[in-house]
Design brief:
The structure holds three protein chains of three kinds. Chain A is mainly α. Chain A has six helices and no strands. By secondary structure, chain B is of the alpha/beta class. The chains are: A mainly alpha, B alpha/beta, C mainly alpha. Chains A and C meet through helix 4 and helix 5 of A and helix 6, helix 7 and helix 8 of C.
Chain lengths: 231, 232, 224
């Protein structure tokens, strides 16, 4: 077994601390009750997915400039993690909404924007899944990721205006953050960010091993072929 | 004078290594033929040289300059006749040739196009859609298309497939003309007789590698000694 | 270069209007969907008033997809895409040419579709008709700017039609919202200020995706 990295250990303890803070340290919200505690993970995931897509965007640009495979791998991994966390936002949102607003789904601007983001980057992954690996694929996937990311701010604005023109049924959720709540939010966000880094690192490791394996099997094939020719 | 130098060209599709360190040169005005079994990598090689496919490693030099740096200049001076004909079936020969000549920024008039069509016996069909043409007629038309930009190098991918004897004769006389005009030609074919007739040099490809190079004076050895090497 | 994109436009229009089938197909597709939508409402119901703008744009976007796909199918059928790429410095001309030809054909279809929509759904306008036409124009520009890039992607990799829709429509969400809102404003009326807001949104969509398409197109078309 390989040694566990320091970062993983740190994240592990931070996870425990943030669990403690979320469930025990942070005070109960007066209006919403216990369910409000989902907020700390919900917001942290939302932040993280945006962060992950930004990484995808930057590394896609880098791919187009440098044409190095590693940038494409980072784009893909980061988008995968981003989609995972957006999914969590989309699940935790309704879980939160149900007891509070008495409805699973509201076309609330933030939730709707998350849904749109989820669709866009799922589309990116689906596009990738439908093309066999080649440098051309990585290039085109990078173009798509860039376009999708450029769309993000436009999507946010359009959805916000779209909601505000119609009468909004639910007024803006107003959360008075007291210091303990804020601390909890900060800690859980930091924890999630570290978690992202670990996930990305592990994913990159796996993908690189796969590449190595491919290379080795090519070499083996070549040697076999040479032998065959000699005979 | 050497016009193209291919140096250790490699290309793979996923796991499949199609070209393995291919190196050869092409001289100005030389007619070079590539032969080899299906899957030897001939078309892939041509697609790389016409900048349609990206190769993985190795270099190509065009008149001593790295091709990657002079792509657009290179494109100006080459053309490609693949077994796909690159013609708009819905358009007439004139419309096709006008479109492609404008694409190269040459403003050829209708008279000039008529003259060209006459050269390949297509003048009386000039108002008909290409879709109604036979394979041989399309083949002749696409040769005109490929000559529009007056290319130094012409790439041909199996131009003889699907042609009857008469049409092959017309085609080979057209190809002879290209040779006379001192253009470099790189052709893929399975037609050994035509290859021997036309080429200055024949390259045999086998499993992504060059297995032999034969000059014209040694063509008589082709069938007995060299072909078995690639067609096992 | 500008010249060449106009040549591509002319050539595409010549082929499309000579063949006619694909234009008729898209047009009839639009017509059928328009009719079908009608049946999701009770006759004479008021809720249809709220939905008409959405219906118009769904129909336009779907038939627009057919047009965009067709633009590159011409090249695929004839294997001429490779020939276009053999031409020096052709990437941006191809982008511009295809953008223009899709735009012209889309406008042609809207020219017929729009009056049909007005008649069938009994639409009356509070704003001048020019406002509506302007709306259609700016939305179409954004639609084709992005659409040409994505249909080039799906041509290069031979993607299935369903994949094209999957990768295209999520990106269109803001454009769709803007288009529907502007059309709604012209039917129901509403503050001028909010229509400016939407116009601004759509124009920024147009500008961002025209430029990104223009700059990034060569990464899609250059050698595989």
């Amino acid at each position: 077994m390989k040694k566990v990295s320091k970062l993983s250990i740190l994240t592990f303890f931070l996870l425990i601390i943030s669990l403690y803070m979320v469930f025990l340290y942070a005070p109960e919200e007066k209006v919403m009750g216990e369910i409000q505690r989902i907020f700390y993970f919900h917001v942290a995931s939302a932040w993280l997915s945006l962060f992950a897509y930004t990484v995808t965007f930057i590394s896609s640009i880098l791919y187009l400039i440098k044409k190095k495979r590693k940038f494409d791998i980072i784009s893909q991994s980061s988008a995968e993690i981003g989609v995972f966390f957006t999914t969590f936002v989309l699940i935790s949102g309704p879980l939160w909404a149900r007891p509070i607003w008495n409805t699973w789904w509201t076309w609330d601007p933030r939730l709707t924007s998350s849904l749109a983001l989820w669709l866009m980057f799922m589309a990116y992954l689906i596009l990738r899944a439908n093309i066999p690996d080649s440098p051309k694929k990585f290039q085109v996937a990078s173009v798509y990721a860039i376009i999708a990311y450029l769309d993000v701010p436009i999507v946010f604005f359009s959805i916000r205006w779209w909601r505000t023109i119609h009468p909004v049924v639910i007024t803006k959720k107003h959360i008075n953050l007291d210091p303990q709540m804020l601390q909890t939010l900060i800690v859980s966000t930091i924890t999630f960010t570290l978690l992202y880094i670990i996930l990305l690192r592990e994913d990159l490791k796996i993908k690189n091993l796969n590449l190595k394996l491919e290379k080795l099997s090519n070499e083996v094939e070549e040697i076999l072929e040479k032998k065959e020719l000699e005979e | 004078m050497e016009i193209l130098r291919i140096n250790k060209l490699q290309k793979s599709f996923g796991k499949n290594r199609v070209l393995k360190e291919i190196s050869f040169t092409v001289n100005e005005g030389e007619f070079l033929t590539l032969i080899g079994p299906n899957g030897a990598g001939k078309t892939t090689l041509l697609n790389c040289l016409t900048l349609n496919l990206k190769w993985d490693s190795g270099d190509v030099f065009y008149k001593g300059e790295n091709l990657k740096k002079v792509k657009e200049k290179f494109k100006k001076n080459i053309n490609y006749i693949s077994h796909n004909l690159f013609l708009y079936e819905q358009l007439t020969p004139i419309e096709n040739l006008l479109f492609f000549s404008q694409a190269y920024n040459l403003n050829k008039g209708r008279d000039e196009i008529d003259k060209l069509l006459k050269r390949v016996n297509l003048l009386k069909f000039k108002g008909k859609k290409v879709a109604t043409f036979s394979r041989g007629m399309k083949q002749r038309l696409t040769i005109l298309r490929a000559l529009l930009n007056n290319p130094e190098i012409i790439f041909l991918d199996e131009p003889f497939t699907g042609l009857d004897i008469k049409a092959s004769e017309i085609l080979s006389s057209l190809l002879f003309q290209l040779k006379k005009e001192n253009r470099s030609v790189i052709m893929i074919t399975h037609n050994i007789t035509q290859a021997k007739n036309l080429s200055d040099r024949i390259l045999g490809l086998y499993r992504g590698k060059i297995s032999f190079q034969l000059e014209r004076e040694n063509f008589h050895q082709l069938e007995e000694t060299f072909l078995p090497r690639v067609f096992k | 270069m500008k010249n060449f994109s106009i040549k591509i436009l002319k050539k595409d229009l010549l082929i499309e209007f000579r063949e006619k089938t694909s234009i008729i197909n898209s047009l009839f597709f639009a017509f059928v969907t328009l009719i079908i939508f009608n049946f999701s409402f009770h006759p004479g119901s008021n809720s249809i008033k709220e939905a008409v703008s959405g219906i118009l744009w769904i129909v336009i976007f779907f038939s627009g997809v057919l047009i965009l796909k067709r633009g590159f199918e011409i090249e695929k059928e004839n294997h001429t895409f490779e020939a276009l790429l053999l031409i020096p410095d052709s990437h941006t001309s191809i982008y511009m040419g295809k953008l223009l030809s899709s735009l012209v054909i889309l406008l042609f279809i809207e020219l017929i579709l729009f009056p049909l929509w007005v008649i069938l759904f009994n639409v009356s306008f509070q704003r001048s008709i020019l406002f509506v036409i302007f709306t259609i124009l700016v939305v179409d520009v954004g639609f084709v700017s992005l659409g040409v890039v994505l249909s080039a992607i799906s041509l290069t990799f031979n993607l299935k039609d369903v994949i094209f829709t999957i990768i295209f429509f999520p990106l269109l969400i803001p454009l769709f919202i803007g288009a529907v809102k502007l059309t709604e404003i012209s039917i129901i009326g509403g503050e001028l200020s909010s229509s400016y807001k939407w116009l601004k949104l759509i124009t920024s969509f147009d500008i961002i995706f025209f430029w990104s398409g223009y700059l990034l197109f060569k990464f899609i078309t250059e050698e595989r």
